[in-house]
Design goal:
alpha/beta; Rossmann fold; DNA polymerase, domain 1; 6-stranded antiparallel sheet; 6-stranded parallel sheet
């Protein structure tokens, strides 16, 4: 039927409807059981929609953004490096916050350290850190839990995008009672490059099925904010571990964020 619209409706079990208009736009509508609608407008940009409106996401760094974990990380590193004969001050530790273990160890211990030795020492440090979390607990930073709930209720997809291993994220999620709060968790083992490379945020966006420009990065470290910028994402910097940051929005704590900050960073959508 050339010149006449063609409608193809997949029945339950294959719940997608495709309406093709010859020479015009195509609409792909996902019915219940899938949540995304994609509307392509001729000669215009693509809008990605779900049942709550335009797709949008927040990508959370964990340490120093979601939780106040710096002292526990420092204690784990300090005690482990002391066993290796390398004293560690808090200032030295703070300068590495947000980096992966390979970068930390090559900066603090030995620039020529082998990958195998980095894995061995790094795994021991992270195990010590998780033991401290389980023994002492960990506190969410001001405003973090409130924003997690508000963003969830507003239909935002949320993920953790951390330089640490996924096991650390699991320990934090368990300690804070946040099971189910994040649709994806991306850790060090999921990427090849660490921050400031954008891979961790691009991976998180892909797992949430949200285009990078529709994802907002929450970070406390310069390397993480640089990674967010390189990913093409708006950024919010939290001054919990550094005296100054470069981001689209910078606050001393998430509790200070204006109620419409996230919407404004995506142009009000």
């Amino acid at each position: 039927m050339t010149g006449t619209p063609r409608a193809v409706l997949d029945q339950p079990g294959a719940p997608r409807a495709v309406l093709d208009q010859p020479g015009a736009s195509r609409a792909v509508l996902d019915q219940p059981g899938a949540s995304r609608a994609v509307l392509d407008q001729p000669g215009a940009s693509r809008a990605v929609l779900d049942q709550n409106g335009p797709l949008r996401a927040v990508l959370w760094d964990m340490d120093g953004t979601l939780v106040d974990s710096g002292l526990l990380h420092h204690e784990a590193w300090r005690d482990l490096l002391a066993d290796l004969g390398r004293p560690l001050t808090y200032e030295e530790f703070a300068a590495t916050f947000g980096l992966r273990n390979d970068a930390i160890l090559r900066r603090l211990v030995d620039a020529t350290m082998s990958d195998a030795e980095i894995i061995r020492i790094g795994d021991e440090k992270e195990a010590r850190y998780r033991t401290l979390v389980q023994a002492r607990g960990v506190a969410a930073l001001p405003g973090a839990l409130d924003w997690l709930a508000r963003l969830r209720d507003g239909g935002w997809r949320q993920a953790i995008a951390s330089s640490g291993p996924r096991a650390n994220a699991a320990a934090i999620i368990a300690a804070l009672g946040l099971d189910g709060a994040f649709a994806a968790v991306v850790g060090a083992e999921d990427v090849v490059e660490g921050k400031p490379h954008p891979e961790v945020f691009l991976t998180a966006a892909a797992r949430l099925d949200v285009p990078p420009p529709r994802c907002i990065v929450l970070e406390d470290a310069p390397a993480g904010l640089e990674a967010g910028r390189r990913a093409g994402m708006p950024t919010i910097g939290v001054l919990s571990t550094h005296a100054a940051l470069q981001a689209d929005v910078v606050v001393r704590s998430l509790a200070e964020l204006d109620a419409r900050t996230f919407d404004r960073l995506l142009g009000g959508a």
